[in-house]
Amino acid sequence: MSAEYATFGLAPAMRAGGVLANGDYQVHRDFVDFIVNGRPLLFQLSDLDAVSPLAADIPPAIFTAHVRRLLLEAPAPLGDGRYVIYGCPECEGLECGAVTAVIERSADGGDGGDDFVWRDFAWQTAEPADLERNGYHGIGPFRFRGAEYRAALGQLLSESERQTRRRVLLIGARVAVLAKLAAALRTIGIGAEIAADATGVPRDELRTYGAVAFGPTIPEETRRSVRSAFDAAGVDVAHVDGLAPVIPLLVAQIEYALDRSPQEQRRLTRLTASPASAELDVTSTCRIQLTTYRVDRLSRTHVHEVFDEVLEPGHHNVPLAPRATKGNAYVVARTSTSVLVAPVRPSPTITP
After folding, report:
1. pTM here?
2. Which of 31, 167, 193, 330 could be stapled to 55 by a disulfide with Cβ–Cβ 3.0 to 4.6 Å?
3. Which CATH number applies to 266-352: 1.10.3470, 2.40.128, 2.60.40, 1.20.58?
């Protein structure tokens, strides 16, 4: 029996980078995700930390080769006609593990064999794939109409330049903090430059930025001037108001600002925090990590890893310990594909 038709599309996505609570770095990756029946295919693969082969930071020739493989205009990279659908975000080695599938033209499609079919999904670490042991038995097969499939992937080939804009302009008064922030961003794969304002910056250079981050002491006049410069250059740039001089917190804010994926296709869509709890909305089953950053009266930063569990879709209330939210505190919620930041707001006072 042939597979039922599924819709096929593409959408921008990212693997959220960041400075983790233990001091490790996680690399930022922008990529194009596959949208099957209106939802990212990646979300159907449990809590998988992976990216598609259509990553923004690979050379154009390799990117084009990956697209042509998916169009079956180039040989499969693996045996048995298998193609990499998602792979390791840190490298391209099969030994790290990859989601693979057979891609073929159908022989019984209604359009004279013009359909494309993805079937026999598996987790693969070596050749050949072991479908019995490592197959994703609940996923696929998917049959895509040829015209829709080719149009979506063909659009990637027709774009003369892929605008990733993985650079950030940092504007602030505390040079030491900005230098550490720029170094952290560059370490995870995000370009960063420091400036007093945007005066004299050529428009072509402004168009390479995806976000501009302001320190808390930057006057409103300077902020308006910077925004005007980007507007004049025709750049829809995200604006980040730094919450506190805490590098992992600022990196998380910038990661969120650079997320170009559609809101309805994100795993984590809402985060608020009070001294007693954090509330968050999750759209698909995934691992959620909550970290609090608290700045005390002596400007010392205290880090607490307060939650690390797999949550089902829905609204969740996570209790927070008082020691983690005392004073000026902030909560960072992280999944493999997104990050959200929220200040801890005092609980409303109820008057009798």
Report:
1. 0.85
2. 31
3. 2.60.40
347 within 8 A of 276, measured Cβ to Cβ: yes
Note the helical H segments in 188-307.
203-206, 220-232, 247-258
CA 56, 59, 60, 64 torsion-angle sign: negative
**92 three-state secondary structure:** coil
21 pLDDT tier (thresholds 50, 70, 90)? confident
Neighbours of 104 (CB within 10 A): 17
Question: What are 294's strand-pairing partners?
Answer: 302, 329
CB 294 within 8 Å of CB 341: no
For 348: left if phi > 0, alpha if psi spans -120 to 50, otherwise beta; the answer is: beta
CATH of 165-263, one of 3.40.50.2300, 3.40.1280.10, 1.10.3660.10, 2.60.120.380: 3.40.50.2300
State the greatest distance between any 2 C-alpha atoms of the chain, in Å, as a whole number.
74
Rounded CA separation 38/249 (Å):
32
Query: Tokens at residue 5, please?
Result: 């038709």
CA distance 144 to 8: 6
| Short-list 55, 59, 64, CA closest to 88 | 55
* Cis amide bond preceding 77, omega within 30: no
203-262 confidence digits (pLDDT tens):
888 888 999 999 988 999 999 999 999 999 888 899 999 999 999 999 999 999 999 888
Contact of 33 with 42, CB cutoff 8 Å: yes
SS3 276: coil
For the stretch 153-165, pLDDT in tens is: 998 887 644 555 6
* CA-based nearest residue to 62, from 190, 186, 156, 126: 156
